[in-house]
Amino acid sequence: MKRIITLLFLLSLLTSCDLFAPPEVEYRVDAGASVDITIEGEGGGTEQFTVSSLPWTKRFTAEKGDFVYVSAQVKTTSSWVSVSIKVDGDTLDDAYSQGDYVIATASGTAE
């Protein structure tokens, strides 16, 4: 009986913690000029668009093991761009580039 109670207690601890919570993903792009952005969208699939209001962020809930990706290209000379991916508030990957028509790309797996 003591083992069953201990097992039930441990199971209740595991199910009440964030081990089973789906990962929260945040893409962030900032740049010195308008950018073309490509992302791996929510639920899979590539999305592309142009953004001039910066910094830009997108937040969504992913499935554990999902591929996450953000890339941005500045559409002018002598500028800069930075991208980052956070999963549950922790930086998964980031990149920075400076120059003419530069690109920055970050990717990884949401765990």
Summarize the structure.
With 111 residues, this protein is mostly beta strands. It has 1 helix and 8 strands.
Query: What is the H/E string?
Result: HEEEEEEEE
Number of strands: 8
CATH class wording? Mainly Beta
The helix fraction, in percent, is 10-25%
How are the strands ordered across the major sheet?
A: 4-1-6-7
CA(first)-CA(last) distance = 36 Å
Mean pLDDT over all positions: 90
Largest sheet, strands/sense/barrel: 4 strands, antiparallel
CATH architecture field: Sandwich
- Rg over alpha carbons: 19 Å
CATH topology: Immunoglobulin-like
Overall description:
By secondary structure, this protein is mostly beta strands. It has a single domain, classed as Immunoglobulin-like, CATH 2.60.40. It is 14% helix and 54% strand. The chain is built from one helix and eight strands. It has one helix at 2-16; strands at residues 24-31, 35-40, 46-51, 56-61, 67-74, 79-87, 90-99, 103-109. Strands 4-1-6-7 form a four-stranded antiparallel sheet, with no helix packed on it. Strands 3-2-5-8 form a four-stranded antiparallel sheet, with no helix packed on it. Strand 2 and strand 3 form a beta hairpin. The longest helix has 15 residues, at 2-16. It starts with a helix and ends with a strand. The model has no long low-confidence stretch (mean pLDDT 90).
Which helices and strands, and how do they pair?
Layout: H1 2-16, E1 24-31, E2 35-40, E3 46-51, E4 56-61, E5 67-74, E6 79-87, E7 90-99, E8 103-109
